[in-house]
C-alpha cells in the first residue's frame, strides 16, 4: 500500500551527494529531455499525467504551464520551498535527503517552460535543507547539469537559492514574489496571474517542491504509469505528513485515494496509547477539521475529502484524540493566523485579531452565549472578503470546529471549563 | 560593522539576480551575523548604503520578518514551537519548563546573557514533536531531561 518512488533515496547513505543520486538513476530524466529536444513534449506528458500542485491548492500543473504567454521572454520558475502550513514537513524531507531530486525536477520543468533562470525560496528556519541544497547546486554546476550549455545541449539555466526569514504569508505565491523582489511579504492583486506577469513582472511559474519533484519520474515513465495510481481527477502518488496522536508519525508516500483509515491505523500504527480519536485535520491547519468517525470512511484524494467537507491541502494529516480540548486547539490556531496576517487588508488583519480574542475569552471561561454567532459572523466577514487566501484559511478551523464540534464550545461557555480534562 | 567579506558577498548576490534589490534578504542575514545576532540602526544604514536603498525601506523589511531581531539577543536563541502538532504533544509545558529554568518569559534574555527564549510558529518538525530550534539546529522529540542535556552543552 505504500509506494517507494518519491522517497526512494531517503535512508540511502549519503543520499544527498551527487554520486549517490546518479548511481540511483538520477539525472536520467534530464538526459532524456535534452536528447529529445522538445520542451512542448515535456509539457504534454505532465499535462496528461494529471499531476496537481502539491502546495495546497491542487491546481493541475500542466495547465498552469500552458498559461505562459507565447514568445514572451525571459521567463522565470520559482520553487516554493517555504513550507509553513502547520502540520506540513514533507518538502523538508525531500530537500534534506534528496536535494538533487529537487534540483532535477527544477531543471526539467524549467526546460519544459523555456526558463533560463530559476529560484528556490526556502524558509529561513530550514538550515539543514539550505546547506544540502547549496552543496547539491554547487555539485550540479560542477557536473554541467546547471549553467551554460547544459551537457552540450545549448540550453542554459541559472539556479538561485534564497532563504526566507520567517513569514507564513511568503508561502502564498504572490507574497513570495514580493519577498524575492526584496520587499515585505505582501500579496499582489491577481490577475495578472504570475504565469502572465510574475517575478520582475515577467511570466513566472511557481510550483511546490513536491510538485516539481514528481516531474522527472513522469518524464521517464510516462503519464499512463503515473495514472496507475489514484483516480481520474486525483492521479498519482502523494506524500502525507502525519502528526499528532498516532503511534508512528512521519512522512509517508501512498497512492492518492488511499483510505485515511489505512494511513492512520496500518501505516502509522493507530491512535497513540490507544486513546480513541476525536478529529482529523486532513490537509494542514487551513483545511476544515472532520469528526474522526467520518474521516475514517474517507479517502485521501481531492474529491473524496471535498465530499466530507474538507480538502487535501498540503497533505498534512493532523490526528487529534478525544482527550484534547478543541476550543484550546482552535484558539492556538487562531493565534497563528493572527500573528501571520500581513496587515495589508482589514478583514484579515482585524478579523483574525477578533477571532483570537473571543476564542481566548471562551477558553478562559469568560465566554458568552452570543460569542458563537459572533464568531461565525466574523468568519463570514473574512471569508471571500480578504485580499488573499490567508483570510479564508484562518476561517477554516474556527468555522468547521463550531459547526462540527459545537457542543464543546457550548459546554465551555456554560460550564466555564473544558469538556475534557486532558 | 559590516565586514569586507559580507560587503563583497552582498555585491556578488546583487549581480546574481535580474534585479539587485533581490539581494536585500541575504544582505540582512549577513548584517545580522556581523552585528552579533541582531540589527541595530547602524546595521540598517550599512545595508541601505550598499544596497542603494532608503534606510526606511530596509528597516521596514527587517521589521516584517520574524527572523530579523531588532533588539539585542543572548549568545544562543532558543525557538520553541507551540503550534498544533507540538502543542498536542505537550509543547506549552516544555516552554514553561524552559522559561522557569532560564528565569525568563518568552521574548526575554536570561540574566547571564546566554539565552534568548522565543515562542514560534510551526517549524516543520511535526512528526518529531515537540521540538525546539537552538540557533541553527533542530532538537526533536524533546523531554525535560533532553532539554537539560542540550542546554548544559551550550556555553
Ligand atoms: C497563506 C498561504 C500560504 C501558502 N504556503 C505555501 C507553502 O508554504 N508552500 C507551497 O508550496 N505553497 C503554499 N501556498 C500555495 C501557493 O500560493 C501556490 O498555490 C503554490 O506554491 C503553487 O504550487 P503548486 O501548484 O505546485 O502547488 C500557500 C498559500 C497561501 C494562501
Keywords, please?
heterodimer, A: 422 residues, alpha/beta, Rossmann fold, Ubiquitin-like (UB roll), de novo design (two linked rop proteins), 3 domains, 5-stranded mixed sheet, 4-stranded parallel sheet, B: 155 residues, Glutaredoxin, 2 domains, 4 strands, binds flavin mononucleotide
Describe this structure in words.
The complex is a heterodimer of chains A (422) and B (155). Chain A is 44% helix and 12% strand. Chain A has 422 residues and is an alpha/beta fold. Chain A folds into three domains: 18-226, 3-Layer(aba) Sandwich (Rossmann fold), CATH 3.40.50; 237-321, Ubiquitin-like (UB roll); 326-421, NADH-ubiquinone oxidoreductase 51kDa subunit, iron-sulphur binding domain (de novo design (two linked rop proteins), Up-down Bundle). The mean pLDDT of chain A is 97. Helix content of chain B is 46%, strand content 12%. Chain B has seven helices and four strands, in the order ααααβααβββα. Chain B has helices at 4-16, 24-34, 41-51, 55-64, 84-88, 91-102, 144-152; strands at residues 76-81, 115-120, 132-134, 137-139. A four-stranded mixed β-sheet of chain B has the order 2-1-3-4, covered by helices on one side. The longest helix of chain B is centred in the N-terminal third of the chain and has 13 residues, at 4-16. The structure holds flavin mononucleotide. Residues 53-57, 59, 80, 82-85, 169, 171-173, 206-208, 211, 388-390, 393 of chain A line the site of flavin mononucleotide.
Amino acid at each position: 500500500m505504500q509506494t517507494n518512488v518519491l522517497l526512494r533515496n531517503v535512508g540511502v547513505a549519503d543520499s544527498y551527494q551527487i554520486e549517490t543520486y546518479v548511481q540511483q538513476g538520477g539525472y536520467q530524466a534530464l538526459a532524456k529531455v535534452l536528447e529529445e529536444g522538445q520542451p512542448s513534449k515535456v509539457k504534454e506528458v505532465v499535462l496528461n499525467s494529471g499531476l496537481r500542485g502539491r502546495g495546497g491548492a491542487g491546481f493541475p500543473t500542466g495547465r498552469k504551464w500552458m498559461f505562459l504567454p507565447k514568445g514572451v521572454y525571459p521567463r522565470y520558475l520559482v520553487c516554493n520551498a517555504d513550507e509553513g502550513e502547520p502540520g506540513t514537513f514533507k518538502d523538508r524531507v525531500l530537500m534534506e535527503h534528496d536535494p538533487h531530486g529537487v534540483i532535477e525536477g527544477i531543471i526539467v520543468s524549467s526546460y519544459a517552460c523555456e526558463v533560463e533562470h530559476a529560484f528556490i525560496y526556502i524558509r529561513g528556519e530550514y538550515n539543514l535543507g539550505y546547506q544540502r541544497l547549496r552543496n547539491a547546486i554547487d555539485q550540479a554546476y560542477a557536473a554541467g547539469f546547471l549553467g551554460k550549455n547544459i551537457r552540450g545541449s545549448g540550453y542554459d539555466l541559472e539556479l538561485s537559492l534564497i532563504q526566507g526569514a520567517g513569514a507564513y504569508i511568503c508561502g502564498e505565491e504572490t507574497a513570495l514574489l514580493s519577498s524575492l523582489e526584496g520587499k515585505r511579504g505582501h500579496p499582489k492583486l491577481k490577475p495578472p496571474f504570475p504565469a502572465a506577469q510574475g517575478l520582475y513582472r515577467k511570466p513566472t511559474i511557481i510550483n511546490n517542491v513536491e510538485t516539481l519533484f514528481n516531474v522527472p519520474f513522469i518524464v521517464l515513465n510516462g503519464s499512463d504509469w503515473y495514472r496507475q495510481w489514484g483516480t481520474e481527477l486525483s492521479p498519482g502518488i502523494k506524500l502525507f505528513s502525519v502528526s499528532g496522536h498516532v503511534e508512528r508519525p512521519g512522512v509517508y508516500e501512498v497512492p492518492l485515494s488511499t483510505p485515511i483509515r489505512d494511513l492512520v491505523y496500518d501505516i502509522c500504527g493507530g491512535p497513540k496509547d490507544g486513546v480513541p480519536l476525536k478529529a482529523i485535520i486532513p490537509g494542514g491547519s487551513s483545511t476544515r477539521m472532520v469528526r474522526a468517525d467520518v474521516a475514517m470512511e474517507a479517502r485521501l484524494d481531492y474529491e473524496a475529502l471535498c465530499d466530507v467537507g474538507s480538502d487535501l491541502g498540503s497533505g498534512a494529516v493532523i490526528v487529534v484524540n478525544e482527550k484534547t480540548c478543541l476550543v484550546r486547539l482552535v484558539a492556538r490556531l487562531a493565534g497563528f493566523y493572527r500573528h501571520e496576517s500581513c496587515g495589508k487588508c482589514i478583514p484579515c488583519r482585524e478579523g483574525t485579531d477578533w477571532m483570537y480574542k473571543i476564542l481566548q475569552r471562551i477558553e478562559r471561561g469568560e465566554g458568552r452565549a452570543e460569542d458563537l454567532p459572533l464568531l461565525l459572523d466574523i468568519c463570514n466577514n473574512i471569508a471571500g472578503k480578504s485580499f488573499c487566501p490567508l483570510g479564508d484559511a484562518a476561517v477554516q478551523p474556527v468555522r468547521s470546529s463550531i459547526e462540527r464540534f459545537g457542543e464543546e464550545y457550548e459546554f465551555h461557555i456554560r460550564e466555564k471549563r473544558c469538556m475534557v480534562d486532558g | 560593522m559590516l565586514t569586507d567579506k559580507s560587503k563583497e558577498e552582498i555585491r556578488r548576490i546583487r549581480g546574481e539576480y535580474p534585479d539587485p534589490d533581490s539581494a536585500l534578504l541575504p544582505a540582512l542575514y549577513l548584517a545580522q551575523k556581523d552585528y552579533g545576532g541582531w540589527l541595530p540602526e547602524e546595521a540598517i544604514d550599512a545595508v541601505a548604503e550598499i544596497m542603494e536603498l532608503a534606510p526606511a525601506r530596509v528597516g521596514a523589511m527587517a521589521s516584517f520578518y520574524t527572523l530579523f531581531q531588532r533588539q539585542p539577543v543572548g549568545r544562543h536563541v532558543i525557538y520553541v514551537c507551540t503550534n498544533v502538532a507540538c502543542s498536542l504533544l505537550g509543547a506549552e509545558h516544555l516552554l514553561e519548563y524552559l522559561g522557569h529554568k532560564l528565569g525568563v518569559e518568552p521574548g526575554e534574555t536570561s540574566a547571564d546573557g546566554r539565552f534568548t527564549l522565543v515562542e514560534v510558529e510551526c517549524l516543520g518538525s511535526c512528526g518529531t514533536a515537540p521540538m525546539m530550534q537552538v540557533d541553527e539546529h533542530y532538537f526533536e522529540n524533546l523531554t525535560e531531561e533532553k532539554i537539560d542535556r542540550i542546554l548544559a552543552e551550550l556555553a
